[in-house]
Automatic annotation (TrEMBL):
Pfam families: AraC_N, HTH_18
One Gene Ontology MF term: sequence-specific DNA binding
Keyword GTP-binding found: no
InterPro entries: Homeodomain-like_sf (IPR009057), HTH_AraC (IPR018060), HTH_AraC-typ_CS (IPR018062), Tscrpt_reg_HTH_AraC_N (IPR009594)
Originating organism: Candidatus Thiodiazotropha endolucinida
Database matches in PANTHER family: ARAC-FAMILY TRANSCRIPTIONAL REGULATOR, TRANSCRIPTIONAL REGULATORY PROTEIN
The entry's keywords: DNA-binding, Transcription, Transcription regulation
Domain HTH araC/xylS-type residues, every copy: 199-293
UniProt name for this protein: Regulatory protein PchR
């Protein structure tokens, strides 16, 4: 029987093969990303899209609302909403890089699969947590690891990628839902009302970063009271709506600047009409001025 160390070694080899240099790699499958990171760094503010990230080698910490989430060799990080977090990379080098696989998570696809599981009468694993948090980490089980390895193997053959890729992705989704920690995800997916409302609000914020959107506006958009919306938003996203809006705006502005846009334009595109305020909040968040990015 193949043990997990052997499986992780094969996963690391497959990632190295298809991600030979430092950086993020988009594969032929839209949902599948590969990561190779060579340099250690302290806590940095980033926005993580909804994804399952499996670490084949290395260690990374993600910080959110005073909680540290570790995903290291043999563990995964799962996020079910776009999350504004801080991440820290430790213990990596050119000879021992961080190697990871990312699978983008589609909440609607997950919900559809859960309905199919319920219809088949699958007994649900008892949730380890009862909250509706949109993030968790857990050790990766062999069946999830095997499916991920098989998915990466298809990258060697475009026909296999096309024919087999989507079905293996469904298997990976199923393995997440079947995990004990997946009980929290099931809570999220089954709370169709409020979770859909929070998801709609998050989507609206991300699509309207250049506009001033208040908590009252968001609550009205999704048909909730302002106090109820604020409480539920923080329960799922771990930050208040206003904090989330600021973090998303600043991270998007940073991306614009790194793409080549000037500082004033980047600030304006994410809703800052005052260059001084933008510069002040940007430096507070990232430790450097926008012009030094």
């Amino acid at each position: 029987m193949v043990n997990q160390d052997t499986r992780l070694a094969e996963l690391a080899q497959l990632i190295s093969k298809h991600a030979p240099d430092n950086g993020l790699y988009q594969t032929a499958l839209h949902q599948l990303l590969l990561f190779r990171e060579l340099e250690m760094h302290g806590r940095e503010a980033v926005v993580y899209e909804p994804a399952l990230i499996i670490a084949a080698q290395g260690r990374k910490y993600v910080y959110l609302d005073g909680t540290r989430y570790e995903y290291s060799t043999g563990n995964f990080l799962a996020l079910f909403m776009p999350m504004a977090v801080e991440c820290e990379m430790i213990g990596v080098s050119e000879s021992e890089p961080m190697l990871a696989v990312g699978v983008r998570l589609d909440r609607h696809r997950l919900a559809k699969l859960l309905l199919k599981m319920d219809g088949a009468g699958q007994s649900s694993a008892k949730p380890q947590i009862s909250s509706t948090s949109g993030i968790f980490t857990s050790p990766v089980k062999d069946n999830l690891l095997d499916a991920t390895i098989r998915l990466l193997r298809t990258l060697d053959d475009p026909v296999e990628t096309t024919v087999l890729g989507e079905s293996i992705l469904d298997e990976i989704y199923y393995r997440i839902l079947s995990d004990e920690q997946g009980g929290a995800l099931k809570v999220l997916l089954r709370q169709q009302g409020q979770i859909q409302q929070i998801s709609k609000a998050v989507e609206h914020l991300n699509e309207n970063l250049d506009k001033n959107v208040s908590v009252d506006d968001l609550a009205g958009l999704v048909g909730m009271s302002s106090s109820g919306f604020h409480k539920k938003f923080k329960e799922v996203m771990h930050v208040s709506p206003l904090q989330y809006t600021k973090l998303i705006r600043l991270n998007k502005a940073k991306a614009y600047i790194m793409e080549g846009k000037n500082v004033s334009e980047a600030g304006y595109l994410v809703g800052y009409n005052s260059p001084a305020q933008f510069s002040r909040e940007y430096k507070r968040q990232f430790g450097v001025s926008p012009s030094a990015t």
